[in-house]
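2024-03-11 09:14:02 DEBUG pipeline.ingest accepted 1 chain
2024-03-11 09:14:02 DEBUG pipeline.ingest length=276
2024-03-11 09:14:03 DEBUG pipeline.predict start
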Amino acid sequence: MSKRNTQEAKRDARERLRAEREKQARKEKMRRQLTVGGIVAGVLALAVLVGFTIANLGSGGDSTDWEAIAADLEEQGENAEYAIPANASGEDGLTISIGDEGAADVFSFYEEPRCPACADFERTTGDTVADGIEGGDFRGEWTFGTFFDEQMNGGTGSKNAISALGAALDVSPEAFLGYLHALYSEEFHTSDNRADDFGDDDKLIEVGRSVEALSDDAAFSQFEESVRESTFAAWSIRMGEKFADDPEITGTPTVLLNGERVETPRSPEELLSLLG
């Protein structure tokens, strides 16, 4: 692609992002107007407003313009500003570290949301990891890749799922662990290399409804709004770049213990035996 065409593509992406922001602002203004009108008009008008809102929320698909957000990040460069989930750490906000900071051992997990092998790993060891973190036996850290989106598989499900994981992390570490476990569960994960179910916001919201740490109305509303509004989309893109920039990570799942790569445990017993 020529430099001119590349610049034009970036300009088009920025224009789409600007248009989307203006569209969201108009929708918010209309929502406020309709809400006030509903209060004045009474119960009937309020019912119409609720029906209108539900119809729009159930539109399905991935609401994020990933190309536009990526172009915006590139334009801003290394010092790009983007929303970072609460409970994330590091200067760039891309460190997901759950557990006692003083723990003697640290497991680092490198995974891909659409990866079937990652789903198998989580189903086998996920409960053990969560219990070990809760008991203070070790700390867990996660980095997520998006290479299923970027290679022959296509789609946006990996980025979209990481954004949803960020939405859960923003609520609490417990919500993150619960959402991660649910995402990879037999109920929700297709375990098919070409499947892109997570490219649907409604699917990711459905996963969230099964998470105990998101069962509180306020917590779930916060989570859902973050998914619907693509709050952590830019963070998701940066997370995928962090994964791709690590030359030591060539596949998923990859497990490190205290910075040293270990053979991926195939059972809870194997995982715990690594601690010595």
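2024-03-11 09:14:41 DEBUG pipeline.report Residues 1-5, 32-59 have pLDDT under 50 and may be disordered.
2024-03-11 09:14:41 DEBUG pipeline.predict end
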